[in-house]
Amino acid sequence: MVIAGRRAVCDPSGALYLESDRILVVSDLHFEKGSSFARRGMMLPPYDTATTLAALARIITRYNPSCVISLGDSFHDGDAAARLPALYATELAALMAGREWIWITGNHDPDHPADLPGETCTELALGNLVFRHEPSKTPCRGEIAGHLHPAAKVVRRGQAVQRRCFVSDQSRMIMPAFGAYTGGLNILGRAFHGLFDAHAITAYMLGHARVYPMVRKALFP
């Protein structure tokens, strides 16, 4: 697909790869969401960080990027990086080794993650692209953001299917959440109103082995 004139690969994992720059972009990892809920008495299976790390390792092995940009909410709360079990912290540090790594701050993680390398910033401009966590309230050409956890629904042969998706009008993009315990928000809902050119919007729905582009008229609320 093309965003603001730049070619990019929407991977079925939910990662975006800018081949010309060897940049891999992921959003909303939400590491340690399970432990964050457990601290509040809501018990979830404690496997989210391991599952997300394994998916991240696969996609880094596939593309071998020179730079990884994580678009905010990489950690589920401000203390989550410090709670990372030593094994997971070691695995994450190994993935980061030998490449540039940029943490974009999010509403869940406004500070640099404790005891981890990489650079931290609120947003990053690279050429005609700008990377930030929350999308601007009005259309912004070249913006790549996360935060809203987009999902799209289609109906085929009477069966409704909703999957996480990239959503773009070729001018800007909102990326799907990459984390194992993150849900999805339908892109026809109020949170997305006014963000895209309604006539040009495409949902790139995540399948098991490929991404399925769906135009606006194929989507259901």
How many β-strand stretches?
17
> Could you give the distance between the termini?
24 Å
Q: Can you tell me the residue ranges where pLDDT is under 50 for at least 5 consecutive residues?
A: none
Mean residue pLDDT? 94
Number of helices: 4
Into which percent range does the helicity of residues fall? Answer: 10-25%
Q: Radius of gyration, rounded?
A: 17 Å
What structural class do you assign from the helix and strand content? alpha/beta
Largest sheet: 9 strands, mixed
Strand content bin: 25-35%
Shape: globular
**What string gives the helices and strands in order?**
EEEEEHHEHHEEEEEEEEEEE
Secondary structure topology:
Elements: E1 2-3, E2 6-7, E3 9-10, E4 16-18, E5 23-26, H1 33-39, H2 48-63, E6 67-70, H3 80-83, H4 86-96, E7 100-104, E8 119-121, E9 123-126, E10 129-132, E11 143-145, E12 150-156, E13 159-168, E14 173-174, E15 185-186, E16 202-206, E17 211-215
Parallel strand pairs: 5-6, 6-7, 7-8, 10-11, 11-14, 12-15
Antiparallel strand pairs: 1-2, 3-4, 4-5, 9-10, 12-13, 13-14, 13-16, 16-17
3D structure, described in words:
α2 runs parallel beside α4 (86-96). Helix content is 17%, strand content 30%. It contains 4 helices and 17 strands. It is an alpha/beta fold. The strands form 3 sheets. Strands 9, 10, 11, 12, 13, 14, 15, 16 and 17 form a 9-stranded mixed beta sheet that branches. A 6-stranded mixed beta sheet has the order 3-4-5-6-7-8, with no helix packed on it. Strands 1-2 form a two-stranded antiparallel ribbon.
